[in-house]
Every structure is written in C-alpha cells, then in structure tokens.
Amino acid sequence: MNVLMIGMGMVAQTHVMALRDNTSSLRLGAVLGRDAARTEAFCDEAGLMLGYDVAAHVSLDDALVARPDLALVLTPPNARLDYARSLATAGIPTLFEKPLERTMDGARAVLTCFETAGVPMALCFQHRTRAAAQALKAQLDSGALGEVVHVEMRVPWWRDQSYYDVPGRGTFARDGGGVMINQAIHTLDLGLWLVGSVVQVQALMRTSPLHRMEAEDIAVGLLEFACGASGVLSASTVAYPGGAESISITTTRAQVTLAGDDLTIAWMDGRVSTHTDGKGAATGGGADPMAFTHAWHQAVIEGFAQAVRAGTAPLATGHEALHVHAVIGAMERAARTGTKAEVGS
Which DSSP state fits 272? Predict the structure, then answer.
C-alpha cells in the first residue's frame, strides 16, 4: 500500500521511522508540503532512511494523481478540513495525528466528510498500543477487576519557553488550546478508552508565569464517568524536568497504577501483578517532546492498514476522537464559568 504523508512537522520523522520498520507492506510514496525546497530536502532524507525514492509535492491534486492507498495527515489542527474534504472525496483512507481539529465543530466537520463519503478514517492515539495499556484494557473488559470506582490521571510534563516560541504553538487559532489538546489529550484518551465516557466536568485551566503563551499550561479537572466512577485529572507543561504520565484506577477488587509502560495491580486479596515491556520507553514528557519510541506509531499505522484491508474498525475511531474533544471543550466551559459543564456529543 502506497502512503501519502501530508505535513512535515515535529512528528513526521517518527512516522518515517514507523514506515521504515513496518511489516505490513506499506511504502511512503510521496510527501506533501507547502515549501518546495523544504519538501524536496525532507524527501531526500526520508529516501536515504527508507532505501527508495519518495516523491515531493506542493499540490494535493498532483499528489493524488498517483492514487495513494492511505494518507497520513500531520498538519497543525487548523489545516485539516480542506485536506479532509479532498481526501474523502478521492476515497483515500486517512489517519490523522491528534487532535482531529482545533474545535469540536471542526472535528465533527472532518469526521462528516469521511462518513458521508463512506471512507475509513482514524486517529493516531498511539498510547493505546502500549503493552501495559493493552494488558489493563483486557483486565477491565473481562470484568476481572470488578467495577471502576475512581480514576486519577496525571500528566506532569515540562516544556521550556523555546517550545512555545514557535509561531502558532499554544494558540487557539492554530492548535485549539494548550496542554489539554496538545499533550494531555493522549492520557485523557487512554483513560476514556479504559473506563468509558465522561458525562460532566468541573475544571480550572490557566497560564502560569513559567510560560509566555496564549492558552493554558495547567489544567485540573473533576470528572464524572458514565459508569458512575469519579475522576481527577491534573495536567501541565510546567513540571520541570518532566515525568511519565500515569493513570491510577480504584476498582472493587484492586488498585491499579499505569505509569508510562509499567502496570501494577495490587489485588485486595494480597496478590500483586505487574506488566512491563522491559524497555523503559520514554513518553516525551521532558524538554525533548520527541523522546519516545516510534514503535507505537508503527503499531497504529499497521493496525489502520489492516483495518482498511479487512473492512473493520480501527483502534481509535473518529467518534472516539469527538468524545475526547467534547470532554476538553466541557473543561474549557467549566473553567470559564466556574460551574459544572455537561459533556456534549
């Protein structure tokens, strides 16, 4: 399957490495960028890594002439909708980097393009592919852990000012917000995937003195899950030097801690079980936001390709992405008003 990559931002190199190592017969056929010289240079470098030529394009119409089998959209969130319309119309299954768009309305419009055209699309929520997260999901789905009572999600990350000095980063116009929609969205998605939907929130979101930026670098939320569980979320990019995100889940049978890719289950009968990949993989919580393995992206891309071939649902669907957007939007409303906010659909 030939892949078209649109956008060459910070995560593009991770996708190139994922395609280099893929075991699903995927080939990076072309890259689309806005700057011809930069796109050519990127494709030359990617070609050296991959061992074959990669075409460079600055026009989507030209890139679609070769009829790619899949598209990867890595652009900033504010540049998604036009590409979504064109790719859906052309019938190209598309995998989007998070978030789907800047706003809930924008994300819904992107999803509608593909649903109307009957074309598969998915989100790159790669933390779902981590071995410990998969093991915990299996335990929860089997009922072995009993009922979920309480959930705590922590994202103690760090970004220095140079990160936010990049034009548009941490703004509502380009990114749609700050720490929630750009960093903590992964942990929030993972918590929702594990426990289920959220129906109501209270929140505090603000910008600290540690950063010069428009949107929030600190977010705190109280969550009410549809299953009846309560939840607490604390996320920031001010926790120097940055640490691994974690999710702790209290159930009627155990206390569960998922920290990075390490899972510990302390059962109420005295047993303790653990699961780790043994690699100690970083998750990008420190000054280097790209300090994580490309294996998670590889798993997402391969899984999406397999879902397209088989006509099955991908790991992270567009509707699941909409719910993540809805929770973040509800947190923003609650923070503005100082009251509880219902999570829409």
Answer: E
DSSP per residue over 120-166, as a string?
A: -EEEE-GGGGSHHHHHHHHHHHHTTT--EEEEEEEEE-B--HHHHTS
Residue 177 DSSP code: S
Do residues 1 and 305 touch, judged by C-beta distance below 8 A? yes
148 forms beta bridges with 251
pLDDT tens digits along 31-78? 999 999 999 999 999 999 999 999 999 999 999 999 999 999 999 999
Q: How far apart are CA 127 and CA 153, in angstroms?
A: 14
CA distance 261 to 291: 14
- pTM across the whole model: 0.94
Buried b (16+ CB within 10 A) or exposed e, 99-137: bbbbbbebbbbbbebbeebebbbbbbbbbbbbbbbebbe
Unique residue bearing structure tokens 């942990």:
187
Q: Write out the DSSP string of 63-128.
A: HHTT--SEEEE-S-GGG-HHHHHHHHHTT--EEEESSSSSSHHHHHHHHHHHHHHT--EEEE-GGG
3-state helix, strand, coil in the chain (%, to 5): 35, 25, 35
Contact 4, 283 (CB under 8 A): no
